[in-house]
Amino acid sequence: MTASGCSYNGGSCHQVVESCKGCGRSMELASGWYCSACPEPSLKWKNGSCNLATHVSVAVASNGTKINPLKASKRGQR
């Protein structure tokens, strides 16, 4: 959605859903709040979190194995 209008589905973009509140890509126009990156935000949130959301952080799972520092230093010398 831009200020000049929408080119999706015959010129009708959908307003943002509740999950999009706080996203940096949402913008307010005269007719309501719209996503600047996705014309239909409900489809992005259908199977989990939106991949374009700026307010959602992805937690990185760490590998629980410990590395022996002595062996690691020897591997680094090769």
Explained architecture:
This protein has 78 residues and is α+β, with helices and mostly antiparallel strands. 17% of the residues lie in helices and 10% in strands. It is built from two helices and two strands. It has helices at residues 41-44, 69-77; strands spanning 26-29, 32-35. Strands 1-2 form a two-stranded antiparallel sheet. The longest helix has 9 residues, at 69-77. It is rod-shaped. It starts with 25 loop residues before the first strand and ends with a helix.
Q: Helical segment tally?
A: 2
Distance from N terminus to C terminus (CA atoms, Å) equals: 55 Å
From the spread of the alpha carbons, the general shape counts as rod-shaped
SSE sequence, one letter per element: EEHH
Largest beta-sheet details: 2 strands, antiparallel
* Tally of distinct domains: 1
Specify the helix fraction band: 10-25%
Strand content: 5-15%
Structure, briefly:
The protein has 78 residues and is α+β, with helices and mostly antiparallel strands.
Observed structural traits:
two-stranded antiparallel ribbon, alpha+beta, 17% helix, 2 helices, single chain, 78 residues
How would the blueprint of this fold be written?
Elements: E1 26-29, E2 32-35, H1 41-44, H2 69-77
Antiparallel strand pairs: 1-2
